[in-house]
Design goal:
This protein is about 50% helix and about 15% strand. The protein is an alpha+beta fold. Helix 1 packs across helix 9, helix 6 packs antiparallel against helix 7 and helix 9 crosses helix 11. The relative contact order is 0.15. Bound molecules: zinc ion. Zinc ion binds next to loops.
Amino acid sequence: MRMLSARDIVLAWEAGQGKHPVDRALLLLALALPEIAPATLNAWTVGQRNAQLLALRQQTLGAVMPCFVHCPQCDELLEFTLDSEALLRLVPEDADPADQMHTLTLDTCTVYFRLPDSRDLAAVASSADADEARQILMARLIGEARDGDRALAVADLPEAVMPALAEAIAERDPLAGPEFTLNCPACQHSWRAVFDIVSFFWTEIEAQAKRLLGEVHTLARIYGWHEAEILALSSARRQFYLEMIS
Ligand SMILES: [Zn+2]
């Protein structure tokens, strides 16, 4: 895995305009891992994909991720940092291959399922609501379901299967949607939040790309250099020239 260059960041930002987060994630990984075929990137579990995005973010911008969120109860602004190294330690050493089937047993029901990947996320992207998305996802992930000896259709599964399945997926693929507890110092409210690495990293990519294009604009105007030349300069050299003309 290589870090994203200034040129990569601008390219990713441009190509990702108006795209779905699933596509933005794959776009960033394709730039950083050109040797891996798109079909392989698509078939990584969501947690495996997120681990690679975290590693890429760490290579490009460092391990410390500054976050802020508003308390849902009193709107107080909470600022904190997450550490990508700590998150990456959640990945089990013996991570399962993406196509492996897993077993979930609940009372007399047995469900055979696989972990979701980017193709599954893309399949539910245009769902009308969360309920429809859940139904589509269940149908894709569940290979077989039985109640004792009787085969069960996904639609006939007991309601308790869905939350149990979500829990089983989180346990086997912890970075698919890492959760953590937040406590508001103003009103003492405490809640669980999910860290969305794609949206977090993309917001940074947008800000970085706009900053870089601003620098291109300033340097091109003064020195007449081309965009590609300016983006190919090291950050230190770009900053030096910018200071010279400020
Ligand atoms: Zn609060």
